Amino acid sequence: MRAMPAELRQMKQAEAEALFRRIGITFAVYGEGGDPDRLIPFDMFPRVFTGAEWARLERGIKQRARALNAFLVDVYGRGEIVRAGRIPARLVYLNEAYEKAVVGFVPPRGVYSHIVGIDLVRTGPDQFYVLEDNCRTPSGVSYMLENREIMMRMFPAIFRENRIQPVERYPELLRRTLASVAPAKCDSAPTVAILTPGHYNSAYYEHSFLADLMGVELVEGQDLFVEGEFCYMRTTEGPKKLDVIYRRIDDAFLDPLCFRPDSALGVPGLMDVYRSGGITIASAPGAGVADDKAIYTYVPEMVRFYLGEEPILENVPTWQCAKDDDLKYVLENLGELVVKEVHGSGGYGMLVGPKSTKDQIEAFRAKIEEDPSNYIAQPTLALSTCPTFVEQGIAPRHVDLRPYCLVGERIELVPGGLTRVALKEGSLVVNSSQGGGVKDTWVLAE
Amino acid sequence: MLSRTADNLYWIARYMERAETMARLLQVGERISLLPNSGGEGFRNEWDSLLHASGTAEGFARKYGDPVQRNIESYFFFDHDNPSSIASCIERARENARIVRTALTVQMWDALNTAFQELRQLERTPRSEIDITRLAEWTTAKAAMVKGTIETTHLRNDGWDFLNLGYLIERADNTARLMDVKYYVLLPQIEYVGSGFDNYQWATLLRALSVHRAFYWAYGGEVTAKKIADFLILNPRCPRSLITCAGGIVGHLDRLAEDYNRPTQAQAHARRMTEGLAAHTPDMIFDEGLHEFLTRFVGDTAQLAGMVHETYLSGDMR
Hints:
By secondary structure, chain A is α+β, with helices and mostly antiparallel strands. Helix content of chain A is 30%, strand content 24%. In chain A, helix 1 crosses helix 5 (141-154) and helix 2 (51-75) packs across helix 11.
């Protein structure tokens, strides 16, 4: 690609954009209030892993996914890890994401988080750090699939000459994973559906894309109703029983009777059906307590506690502003640190010390002092870069990686994931809502 | 199929058909504005009648007051305050399509999405640079494109039936309303019927429905009210006649009932409508009064649409 003349490169880039526009992959950006059909920038330069590099990552990711699920079953059950003093009770039981409505309930196969998205960065040849875990409804997998589709269309020769492992099994694996966690009361082939907040949601494209590739219905709350022990879809042929919901809405909007009486979204009575084993909800309500940024620090501890193994993937060293010593250190070193809100996501409400002005730092200091327990801090990592097409030609840009680990009867990981790239020179923020782009991720067969 | 999906498909078709009707109305208005003002008040009445025909007279009067050609054109094509404007219809058809993208073929989505993207272009173009004939032709071409992709690429499943039901119900309603307006709004006084003026108006109606040439093929000779009523109401060869629409609706409802193994009220109702039309002659219609007859038909169609909604689209069927 380096040898490709600039005009051809621009032509290819335009071709890629036209393809995206036509198939309609768009990502609405919150807060911009603008075009819901905005395109996410796609970079043609792939990010490549060797088979050996991937094998180690895969072991680490699966290990982490198992530990996170074990933790969830535990904290909604006996809470052994808290009793053993390995995680402070306050962080778990007073956590906003801790769902009292499901205490004592064990979901089918003991899985709370069926799709675990683990955000990774690389800082050296063998050094990967986990930035955060996403146990609820990690998005972006449609880009993994579409990026590959587009690359194969545009550069077929490269795929013929290199042994790049395919990712296209993902939708089928996801469907099988969901079917494998059907509830006890389901006595025939389970009916699976994806629950979306609706077509105004920024990830609606992804919801409908997945439903299509999995061959399942894409439903909204209004399409469902509860009667007796089960939940049904409204169809042109009358009610159809639903067994597994892959929900892409927050806990709070699942069931107005259980969570938010003011919500127009959701299905009244759904939680009763869920708790009596009439339906499986993936991810399970309450799964969010495991991917909270304050809990994150303790994930390596979970691996040791539940699995009796040493963690393969490391955490980024993290300071909890809730702890006095940590807070002191953070406030003294704001200029070198990345500070995040505990519950924030999407790259909002964070401070990147080295990239901020004095005024910005001071403004953030005030916010931290006001509510220290709402913040954590991490060192600025020397993130790996990947060649990227930019206006001036090819230049290094920072990247991260989100693989999608599926947890059901088995634990599965397709070789690949979503590589996000910070398109601005020197920028570390890769979120699509902050102008980041995406790349195809290649894992070579050995 | 989810009831909501069926509902989206049904409305894609209804909106596209409605956009096409609006475009035809615009073409008629444009054509008449080019002719000498033969009918005295006729010219003004013509634009007025377009507003009545499309059921948007009230909304227009509230916003613009007197029917001025340029305002009417904007109101019919671009105005988002007008729920029946071509822009509104195409946008809503495309929005419905976006929601059920995966229930459409790639070609259908392409046709709908392209229409929408081009519409956005048109909306950005200064009005002085586009003439109304071009807009109307663009609309009918896009509508034909969407219909063509449905006809040639869509699986003949229940979704196809809901799409076609949308087209046929909307078309039945539109044809009846257009006829009624021509007759009732333009010719309140019975002495006009059969006069040269009358025939001229009727010919315009044929143009509005794009069946002008077809009428001559089928009947030839002089244009009379009776011939036209026969053609647009009772002739099963006319693609837009009421009986063609009603018969098509029966066919699709029968297919659905068979697919789902469940007969419906809507089926029986549509069959009664078709049989009723088949038993009529033009004389019987004029004896009853064309306006009365059409009012009854529009009511029957609305009732049928209600039944289709209740049975299949609302999701309340148990």
